[in-house]
Specification:
The complex is a heterodimer of chains A (about 550) and B (about 290). With about 550 residues, chain A is mainly β. Chain A is about 5% helix and about 55% strand. The relative contact order of chain A is 0.11. Classes of the chains: A mainly beta (about 550), B alpha+beta (about 290).
């Protein structure tokens, strides 16, 4: 609480400066935004929504940024009075959650206070925020960037991670990136460009008393400094691109890996080719015991991650295709993803009058093939690098988007998803889902448009009250969205489990936008499930009621 | 070329900073350590190496001109027996241990106590040694360890161990050392037993008088007793002495002197009969 009071002091100090600055007395300028999200939810026994004792839940945030030449300073007020459903109750409260001062020139930057940073693909360090997931692992400390000469960037960070209203742990990291072409004058403008990078991140934490299994009176001898190292490359030549990163982590017994001492690593590779009207990309990834968090005993599975491994499955947008999102398994997984886009030109057999876009994406993710050595206090398991374990997730989506006329545009999608509930911590059979989506947009005139969306999902899963997975069964969905100019929109949708499932989830939304201000109201039911962004997920509990959101910026 | 030089300098500076915060590496044998109250005995998991070992306690001094010969003979024996023979060099408070010139004194109060108890001070003959604190019908089996070490050691090693001892870890934890000791009874023992822990240091360069009367300023002393961590006669072992019994205890030790280089130290642990002082078995390990 004392920390929050001291933060408030900083806020008031900055607020004292800002009005003057906004008037140009000190020079510079002030920008910011305000977001207010609220929710009222009622008990609904069919969908499993509970009563909310506080009746009204709200998440509020305001960012204020002052910039004056190379100098900038900012702060963020956050209020969770009480936190909206799905957000951890530990957020309850309000105060200045983020503040910083920064000085940045072309070749040098230093930030003191809270900052976000990522080394490479984030395999050793990604301090980031996703407000929709309720994740903010900003570091509070010092972040320095130095560019000794063009093409070379060195970074150094040291700080503690944000954990709800506290900061905790200790993270230190360095990163260097070199554009090899920039080192040699004659290579600078070469068609082939190569960038190499490396990073090292170390965390420190005090000893915890983790009792060993088996013998009374024994505990684990835990490493207090755990390091992770990564090397990466980015090669491009014309339309071809090849990126790769490998990271290795030292012994890090923690709650995620059941306190084993096996070292971790991750290899990620991506190869791509693109030209006008076509692109192809294939990615591969192998993750082995690479969960890297500030606290080895952290109870919330999504909190206090220092690193991040890139997702290797498509983030679907349609409701039924995204009903079973894949959460990256930092304890171990192997995956392949292929993505192909092609545009059939106008005035061709398949392109027709306006051209046709085809987008195919598929991914396959499995566990590792492991041989158990022992439990906590051992090396855990051995694993063959190329051998795969159980199927975790697979999907295939084929989307064809075509403009039918000057006013009609149709996107038709077929998707197939196979999902292993073990990745959400449940035993059970694989779920096999077929999904068909039709998305039609009718541009009535310059100011009015209407969008129709119809979805169907057939699944071999059946609702079982003992498991209570409300996603099971066969579903249909319809959505109508009307846009009046760019200011108003009204949307009505309904999802209904017509076979082997449970639930009827209707939603009505109205939105109004004027300038930088947007107001949205919604009423309806939310199915219990999981949302994922970039493979990072959180649970979403069922709700039935009103939601509203007000955002503005200045 | 200038750019590459600048790059190397920049990277060197960054990496140098992080050389101080690299990650810890726990050896597999030390994944699990004792968590109970210090000095308290609990049921243990047993001892992997159940062999009999011997300990030679050599009473020595920097002014003892025959002691370097004993050091050499003990070094040969340790090389010959490997981990089956553990050596300790004890500097009591006799005139032989007075430092030569401005060099540190290696004497310890515990060394003086033991020297008096075993009659080394009264005999006044240095070097003198005991192997496993063995005795004869006439008293302690003290001998001059310039020769005949093997016969004393063989007498011990020819017996089957009654108690197996292991020092599983000696880990520096902040400013103290965590020491985990396991014992396992291989045969029933009815006597009351004690566990003694010693801190000994290797590679101490301290002036030593040689046989020809000259002083060697670069003489390297090994196995030097720095401290008896437990009481000089050991700590009671809470056990029944039944064959097959396995016990374990953790000791947390804060070194008394900051001049001792823990990275060059060993922990010696031995089980002895409380009344007779006879050492049943011994083990050692490096401090890390």
């Amino acid at each position: 609480m004392n920390k929050r009071i001291s933060l408030l002091g900083v806020a008031l100090m900055l607020c004292g400066i800002i009005p003057s600055a906004a008037q140009g007395i000190l020079g510079g300028h002030v920008t910011g935004n305000i977001q207010f999200d609220g929710q009222i939810s009622h008990r609904d026994t069919i969908i499993g929504a509970d009563d909310v004792p506080k009746k009204l839940l709200s998440n509020i945030r305001t960012d204020i940024l002052y910039t004056n030449g190379d100098f900038s300073a900012g702060l963020r007020y956050e209020g969770y009075l009480g936190p909206m459903l799905g957000f951890r109750p530990d957020y309850e409260g309000q105060g200045i959650a983020n503040y910083f001062v920064s000085y940045r020139t072309q070749n040098f930057a230093v930030t003191a206070g809270h900052f976000y940073e990522q080394f490479g693909n984030g395999m050793t360090l990604r301090a980031y925020e996703d407000r929709y997931l309720g994740i903010d692992n900003a570091l509070r400390g010092i972040n320095i960037m130095y560019r000794p000469f063009n093409g070379v960037i060195l970074k150094g960070v040291i700080g503690q991670q944000r954990y709800f209203w506290e900061t905790t742990g200790l993270v230190r990291g360095i990163d260097g990136e070199v554009n090899v072409n920039s080192l040699v004058e004659s290579w600078k403008d070469a068609k082939t460009q190569l960038t190499l990078g490396a990073s090292f991140v170390s965390k420190y934490e005090d000893n915890d008393e983790i009792i060993s299994s088996g013998i009374d009176g024994y505990k684990l001898n835990l490493p207090q400094n755990v390091g992770a190292t990564a090397v990466r490359m980015d090669l491009s030549s014309g339309g071809f691109g090849l990126q790769a990163e490998y990271a290795h982590k030292g012994q890090d017994p923690n709650d995620l890996n059941d306190y084993i001492y096996r070292e971790g690593d991750v290899l990620w590779m991506s190869a791509s080719y693109s030209k006008k009207g076509m692109s192809a990309n294939i990615q591969a990834k192998r993750v082995d015991n690479m969960g890297f968090r500030s606290h080895r005993t952290e109870k919330y599975k999504e909190m206090l991650f220092i690193n991040y491994t890139p997702a290797i499955s498509k983030q679907h947008t349609y409701a039924f295709l995204s009903m079973y999102p894949y959460a990256t398994q930092s304890t171990g997984e192997m995956g392949l993803q292929g993505d192909f886009m092609y545009k059939f030109k106008k005035e061709t057999l398949l392109g027709g009058k306006y051209g046709t876009d085809v987008h195919i994406n598929t991914s396959l993710i499995t566990g590792l093939d492991t041989t158990r050595i022992g439990g906590r206090g051992t090396n855990g398991y051995t694993s063959d690098f190329f051998s795969t374990g159980d199927l975790y997730y697979g999907d295939l989506s084929v989307e064809i988007a075509k403009k039918l006329s000057s006013k009609l545009k149709l996107a038709a999608t077929y998707g197939y998803v196979v999902f292993n509930p073990i990745i959400e911590g449940h035993e059970g059979d694989l779920h096999h889902n077929n999904v068909v989506v039709a998305d039609l947009t009718w541009k009535i005139n310059k100011k009015n448009s209407i969008r129709f969306e119809a979805e169907w999902m057939g699944s071999d899963s059946k609702y079982d009250a003992t498991v209570d997975d409300k996603r099971c069964g066969d579903w249909i969905m319809g959505l109508v969205e009307y846009n009046l100019t760019s200011a108003w929109f009204v949307s009505l949708s309904d999802q209904y489990a017509y076979n082997d499932g449970i639930g009827n989830y209707y939603n009505l939304s109205v939105g109004y936008t004027k300038g930088a201000t947007r107001l949205q109201l919604g009423y309806g039911k939310q199915r219990e499930g999981i949302i994922c962004i970039g493979g990072v997920c959180r649970n979403v509990p069922a709700s039935n009621g009103l939601t509203f959101s007000l955002t503005t910026s200045f | 070329m200038k750019k590459i030089f600048q790059l190397f300098v920049s990277v060197f500076v960054f990496v140098s900073v992080f050389a101080f915060v690299s990650c810890d590496k726990i050896e597999e044998d030390n994944y699990i350590v004792y968590a109970g109250a210090a000095g308290k005995w609990y049921d243990g998991s047993g001892v992997a190496d159940k062999s009999q070992r011997a300990i030679i306690e050599k009473y020595t001094g920097v002014r003892c001109v025959n002691c370097p010969t004993a050091d050499e003979a003990i070094g040969v024996a340790v090389g010959q027996y490997g981990d089956k023979l553990i050596a300790v060099a004890i500097h009591d408070s006799s005139n032989f241990t007075k430092p030569i010139g401005d060099t540190p004194r290696l004497s310890t109060p515990d060394g003086e106590t033991m020297s008096q108890f075993f009659g080394v001070r009264d005999a006044g003959q240095y070097p003198a040694a005991l192997v496993n604190r063995a005795s004869t019908s006439t008293g302690w089996d003290l001998f001059t360890p310039t020769e005949g070490i093997n016969s004393h050691v063989d007498n011990i090693l020819s017996n089957n161990a009654t108690v197996a001892v292991a020092v599983d870890s000696a880990v520096i934890n902040n400013n103290s050392v965590d020491i985990t000791v396991n014992i396992e009874f291989l045969q029933p023992v009815s006597d009351e037993l004690s566990l003694t822990l010693m801190l000994i240091e290797d590679s101490l360069v301290v002036t030593q008088r040689l046989h020809d009367g000259s002083d060697n300023e670069n003489y390297v002393h090994n196995h030097v007793l720095r401290d008896v961590i437990t009481d000089v006669w050991g700590a009671d072992i809470d056990c029944t002495g039944a064959a097959g019994e396995k016990r374990v205890a953790l000791f947390q030790y804060k070194p008394e002197s900051s001049e001792w280089n823990l990275r060059r130290c060993h922990i010696v642990a031995f089980v002895s009969v409380k009344n007779s002082k006879q050492i049943l078995n011994v083990a050692d390990c490096h401090v890390r």
